[in-house]
Structures are given as C-alpha cells and as structure tokens.
Amino acid sequence: MSVLEARDITKIFVDGDTATPVLRGISVTIEPGAFVALVGPSGSGKSTFLSIAGTLLTPTSGSLQIAGLEALGLRERELARLRNRHLGFVFQFHHLLEDFTALENVLMPVYGAQHAIDATWRKRGRELLVRVGLADRISFRAAKLSGGQKQRVAIARALVMKPELVLADEPTGNLDRASSSQVMSLLRELSRDEGTAFLLSTHDEAIARRCDRTLTMVDGLLTRPPSEQVA
Ligand SMILES: Nc1ncnc2c1ncn2[C@@H]1O[C@H](COP(=O)(O)OP(=O)(O)O)[C@@H](O)[C@H]1O
Ligand SMILES: [Mg+2]
Asked: Contact, 81 vs 75, CB < 8 A?
C-alpha cells in the first residue's frame, strides 16, 4: 500500500472576482520508505501541494489517499486524527514552543493524540533527541537552542508518532550550507532506520540530488523525468 496517492489534484485560490489557478493536475504516488524531493522555482506550487498532501488545505478537485485512507471529505476531527497517526511535518520555520524543553516539544504530537505521556513515550522522545544529536540538550528550553538545533528538535517531533510519511517544506531553507548538509544526512538516515517515507520540497538542486527520486514542479504541473518522455 502506498503512503501517499494523490490523483489529479487541482487548486484554484479564489479571492473576490480573482481566481488564481495554482495546481493544475498533480498526481503523485509515494511508496513506503521512499525519499523523494519536490523541486521547482519559487511560486510553482510546492508549498500548496504539500499543504494539500498534509490535509491542511482542501484541493479544488482530485483525490487523496494517505496510508490507504480516503482523506477528502473527512470532518476536521477525523482529519486531525489521520494527520496525527500517519503524517509528520517539518517546516522551514521550526514552530517550536519556546518556553518548553526540547523533550516536551518532541512529545507535543503525543499530547495531541491524547495519549498519557508515560515512561515509554518519554523514552521514545529521549531516544529521538539522542538520534538527532541533541543528547546534551534534552532538558534545555527551546529558546536556548540554536537554529540548527531547533530544526533537529522539529525533526524528532515529526517522527515521534512513527508516521508513515513526513512532509517537509524547505526543511533546510533557513540553514547555512554546512548545517543544511548535516540535516539532509540525518533525514536520510532516519528515513532508513525508521522506515519512514519523506516528501521534501527544496529549490536547491544539490539537496534534490541526495534523494531517491525527484519530482519537478513548474507552474502548477509536474514535468516528466527524461526517462518517461517519449522520444
Ligand atoms: N492563499 C492564497 N491565495 C492566493 N494565491 C496563493 C495563496 N497561496 C499561494 N498562492 C499563490 O500560489 C502560487 C504558488 O505558491 P506556493 O505553493 O507557495 O509556491 P512555492 O512553495 O513553490 O514557492 C504563488 O503564485 C502564490 O502567490
Ligand atoms: Mg514554498
């Protein structure tokens, strides 16, 4: 079963009399554990597609399955549950709660799922923080961490519930080249170790080259890779 099956997704933003077509028929299938880049110039629709794939935004038309579940037409409560169980999110800005510790931030999705935070969850949270290289920062308040460290906490948070798919929108967009390269290596290792699929957007070709597969978006459409083009 695919972790993501999007078919003919379109999105037209309507504001008064103005209709802006942003996605013009996007179909994407992602298999378990795949590590996929979504590249394309700024404004091509990458963030809009990731928001739709993450059920944070409703498409104008098309169909969407996440881990085999039909995602369109669900009520907000059911959507929140689907998101919480099957998806992880990493954004360009980490969105950590600054007054909470690294561990508390990592455990936020567990609170969201209304599970009691027991020793098993704390252990999972701690292990992930060790895994992302923050063994000595577990009890630091997020406000005291550097940008790169915060992004590592955000990555641990995205993985805590063992989602089948992590959607990452320019996850290295705010980092310098060295941190960015380290974060990419880390994401790859985590994908392999945890068996989690990743779909990550970037406008950096060097980052895209480190993925198994690249989807290129131009003006709301995916271009076909050369291997699929008819000669
Ligand atoms: N809420 C919105 N209303 C109108 N247009 C939007 C809205 N959100 C995004 N857009 C437009 O959609 C296009 C694609 O944006 P986006 O998905 O953010 O692209 P990317 O992430 O590839 O830079 C842009 O032209 C942007 O201005
Ligand atoms: Mg974007």
From this structure: no
